[in-house]
């Protein structure tokens, strides 16, 4: 893959991982051999083997060239950029499953392929699907304003922002302030509790970034407001609505919303984050236990690769959002809408984004929480789907995780360099 293509893929994968203020500069570089991983790198030889799990009855394997590339993409873990990786590929092109790395660095047990993980902004796909279901039921209208539904919350200065503009990040609402600018600050406040109402109010107490519908700026706050809209028009909690509308019908038994609980309940592979030390060195810290109330409807979901694969296939097949409304998830804003500040083309639809990989149009969503990166992606015809969880030591950093990038290229091919 040439440098231009690699840069394009890196930009695409990092979208959605840092959904608020930019990640601290200290995360932009991951040293080749962090001291904390020196011992872990000498993991048992068995961990270097990445077996493909049995395929579903009636399924067939991906071509051997693809399987070889996928095995190579996740071999050698734990490494300096990731401690574990879980991958599922499926579709009419064939299926493949693999895992690599360790469940925890302390004991070096092999990673649990069925382990739960924080999926971060993949949550937005569930939120968008729930909102579109409510549009189908005439409880929400894409062209009505958020203020119409939440007059006590949305001030007149944001009175023109519509439901559709929240879904595709063209609202102009800035990020909620006050969550710190460095990894150390975030870590110190990892157990703070945040109210979505207070976050939305503080965001909209600021001046708009731009006129609604004129630019696109991917920010969590849009989906925080959407979660509040779901609660307003249903008279129910956001988490319960997603559970009743999506999780229960699809049998996603290992997917949950943690609320105020900072733990990952059930089997999981621990997450680690690379920190800089006062002396200029680096260390890894276990960041598995970390509150996510700041993310809520924008990024707090916990799931498994099996559940996310099932959800992705059902969504793309029209079994979650039905009829013309599904097209909202595969339609970018008008070409006149440009990305805020950079001026590049808009890249987000309602809940998803798109990229051309290996000559194919691929739609999906990345997600990142400290210690964890995740992705769901598929071609429209479901000829190939990809779900991964990578326990990244550089999650939410400015650079794309190398293991995650290799998995995407192995599954779909390299991006078009243009």
Number of domains in the coordinates? 1
- Report the biggest beta sheet as strand number plus sense, adding barrel if it closes: 6 strands, antiparallel
Low-confidence stretches: 20-36, 38-49
In the CATH scheme, the class would be: Alpha Beta
Strand order in the sheet with the most strands: 2-1-12-11-10-9
CATH topology: Beta-lactamase
Task: Work out the radius of gyration.
Answer: 20 Å
* CATH architect. name: 3-Layer(aba) Sandwich
The percent range for helix content is 25-40%
Tell me how many strands there are.
12
Could you explain how this protein is built, in words?
This protein is α+β, with helices and mostly antiparallel strands. It has one domain: DD-peptidase/beta-lactamase superfamily (Beta-lactamase, 3-Layer(aba) Sandwich). It has 11 helices and 12 strands. It has a 6-stranded antiparallel sheet, sandwiched between helices. The protein has a two-stranded antiparallel sheet with strand order 3-7. A hairpin with a 5-residue loop joins β11 and β12.
Summarize this structure briefly.
27% of the residues lie in helices and 16% in strands. It is of the alpha+beta class.
Name its key features:
418 residues, alpha+beta, Beta-lactamase, six-stranded antiparallel β-sheet, two-stranded antiparallel ribbon, 12 strands, 27% helix
């Amino acid at each position: 893959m040439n440098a231009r293509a690699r840069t394009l893929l890196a930009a695409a994968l990092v979208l959605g991982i840092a959904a608020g203020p930019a990640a601290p500069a200290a995360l932009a570089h991951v040293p080749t051999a962090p001291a904390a991983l020196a011992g872990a790198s000498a993991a048992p030889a068995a961990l270097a083997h990445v077996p493909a799990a049995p395929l579903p009855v009636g399924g067939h394997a991906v071509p051997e060239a693809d399987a070889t590339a996928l095995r190579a993409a996740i071999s050698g873990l734990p490494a300096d950029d990731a401690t574990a990786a879980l991958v599922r590929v499926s579709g009419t092109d064939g299926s493949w499953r693999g895992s690599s790395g360790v469940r925890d660095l302390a004991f070096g047990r092999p990673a649990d392929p069925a382990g739960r993980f924080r999926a971060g902004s993949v949550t937005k796909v569930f939120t968008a699907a729930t909102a579109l279901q409510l549009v189908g039921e005439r409880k929400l209208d894409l062209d009505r304003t958020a203020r119409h539904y939440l007059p006590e919350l949305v001030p007149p200065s944001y009175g023109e922002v519509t439901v559709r503009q929240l879904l595709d990040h063209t609202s102009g609402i800035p990020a909620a302030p006050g969550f710190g600018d460095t990894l150390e600050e975030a870590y110190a406040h990892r157990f703070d509790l945040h109210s979505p109402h207070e976050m939305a109010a503080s965001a909209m107490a600021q001046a708009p970034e731009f006129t609604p519908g004129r630019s696109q700026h991917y920010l969590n706050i849009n989906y925080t407001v959407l979660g509040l809209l779901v609660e307003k028009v249903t008279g129910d909690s956001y988490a319960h609505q997603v559970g009743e509308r999506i999780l229960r019908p699809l049998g996603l038994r290992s997917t949950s919303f943690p609320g105020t609980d900072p733990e990952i309940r059930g089997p999981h592979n621990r997450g680690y984050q690379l920190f800089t030390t006062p002396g200029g060195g680096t260390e890894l810290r276990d960041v598995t236990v970390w509150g996510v109330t700041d993310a809520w409807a924008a990024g707090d979901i916990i799931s498994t690769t099996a559940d996310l694969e099932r959800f992705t296939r059902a969504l793309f097949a029209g079994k979650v959002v039905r009829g013309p409304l599904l097209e909202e998830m595969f339609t970018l804003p008008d070409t006149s809408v440009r990305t805020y500040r950079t001026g590049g083309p808009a890249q987000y639809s309602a809940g998803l984004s798109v990229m051309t990989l290996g000559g194919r149009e691929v739609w999906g969503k990345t997600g990142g929480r400290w210690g964890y990166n995740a992705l769901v992606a598929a071609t429209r015809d479901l000829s190939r789907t990809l779900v991964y969880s990578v326990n990244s030591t550089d999650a939410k950093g400015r650079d794309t995780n190398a293991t995650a990038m290799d998995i995407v290229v192995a599954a779909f091919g390299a991006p078009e360099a243009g």
